[in-house]
Design brief:
alpha+beta; two-stranded parallel sheet; two-stranded antiparallel ribbon; about 25% helix; about 15% strand; flat
Length: about 90
Amino acid sequence: MLKPLSFGFNAQTSATNYFQQDTRIFSLEEISKRAEKEFDGLRRKLTDVGINVVCLYDEPIPEKPDAVFLNNWFSTHEDGSVFIYPIQSPNRR
């Protein structure tokens, strides 16, 4: 899991992500606090039932408003090749 640092609306992904809406009901600070609280609660629930959770921590630069959604992926192959499949928007890579 990646602990959110600057969670919020991502303008780079909003055009192709139905779930991204810039509603601004809460301040960016409040959104970030709520995301961190939700993250900590989920991590606690997982560890409470014996699931080993590896926690990574986001860095402030470059800013990644939805880094909590880890979705770059890779594949490994029998010949030792590794292929990386990056996400469309630059700030999600």
